[in-house]
Amino acid sequence: MLRRYILNKTNTFINYRYASQSMLQSTIDDKLGIATLVMNKPPVNSLNLEFLEEIKSQLTQFKNDKIRGMILTSDLQKIFCAGLDITEFSNPNPERLSKICTTFQDTWLALYLTQFPTVAVINGHSPAGGCLLAMSCDYRVMVGPNYTIGLNETKLGIVAPKWFQDCMVAVIGQRKAEVSLTTGKMYTTDQALQIGLVDESVPDVDNAINKGIQFLNNFQKISPWAYKMTKDIRRQPTVQWLIDNKQKDLDFVVKSMMSPNVQKSIGLYLQSLKK
Ligand SMILES: CCCCCC/C=C\CC(=O)SCCNC(=O)CCNC(=O)[C@H](O)C(C)(C)COP(=O)(O)OP(=O)(O)OC[C@H]1O[C@@H](n2cnc3c(N)ncnc32)[C@H](O)[C@@H]1OP(=O)(O)O
């Protein structure tokens, strides 16, 4: 449905792939220079290794396409992205787990540092890694009122890495982030708007896409160089920490995921999802 809407809305498309063959659909409106990246991995757009690799590679492709802006959204009913694939954390193969973590680090770096402005059109629930993807964009428009967003890792008995946490601090500030992270709180659209986790709340996805395009149009009169330098200065401390501590970050995640206590929590959480 969303794909049809975007096709009607925009003019010429390149690099278009069909949903049946791909977990990601990317379209570029040549006239506006705006790309739309639509996640389509039923049932909940959970981020496993292969999906993360596709997202990372598409972001690199957009860099080469020299687009002017990007909208990230979902083609699924009610779900933006359910975060990392939790089944990958249950009795994981350490090698594959390391690959997932490294790929997620790299995908995040690519998204957080894009040389073009980005908007998350959050048209469904967005827990954990889904919230991180949204927070990494330059602007967030969320469809309301019935969806939720937040970093709920503590509810799974796991720890959001420092770069997840710092990304949230950059969006909502130290105090609100601390309460939000420690309690693993999921916010409704209205609550998210109130604490600044999202920038706008709209009743439907058509409005959300329009708001996203409006935001991106602000950059028509801004030098791309000035935009990118300013964004880099703002985001550099969070990014630099990860670049300097990639292995340490990875070791912590893998070690903690493999511990019996965390495995027990993840098992219980997965069971609760099935119920
Ligand atoms: C360097 C790397 C750092 C790693 C460290 C950070 C660690 C973790 C970050 C994360 O992202 S952990 C993921 C946390 N995600 C969640 O807690 C989301 C849990 N899911 C939900 O709350 C709900 O499913 C939903 C997204 C709100 C959707 O609800 P709905 O009622 O529409 O659908 P369900 O029936 O609950 O789910 C359908 C189907 O999908 C399975 N599923 C849901 N979420 C995930 C997931 N994240 N990974 C894998 N599978 C998921 C769910 O179990 C159902 O499966 P079936 O019962 O149909 O088999």
| Oligomeric state | single chain
As for the number of domains, it is: 1
Low-confidence stretches: 7-20
How much helical structure, as a percent, in the residues?
A: 40-55%
Distance from first to last alpha carbon:
29 Å
For the record, the CATH architecture stands as Alpha-Beta Complex
* SSE succession: HEEHEHEEHEEHHEHEHHHH
Sheet with most strands: strand arrangement: 1-2-3-4-6-9
CATH topology descriptor: 2-enoyl-CoA Hydratase, Chain A, domain 1
Q: Mean pLDDT across all residues, rounded?
A: 92
Class by helix and strand content? Answer: alpha/beta
CATH superfamily: 2-enoyl-CoA Hydratase, Chain A, domain 1
Shape: globular
Main CATH class: Alpha Beta
Strand content: 5-15%
Tell me the major beta sheet: 6 strands, mixed
Question: How many individual β-strands?
Answer: 9
Bound molecules: ligand LJEIAPTW
Number of helices: 11
GO molecular function, one term: delta(3)-delta(2)-enoyl-CoA isomerase activity
Catalytic activity: (3Z)-decenoyl-CoA = (2E)-decenoyl-CoA; (3Z)-dodecenoyl-CoA = (2E)-dodecenoyl-CoA; (3Z)-octenoyl-CoA = (2E)-octenoyl-CoA; (2E)-tetradecenoyl-CoA = (3Z)-tetradecenoyl-CoA
Subunit structure: Homotrimer.
Pathway: Lipid metabolism; fatty acid beta-oxidation
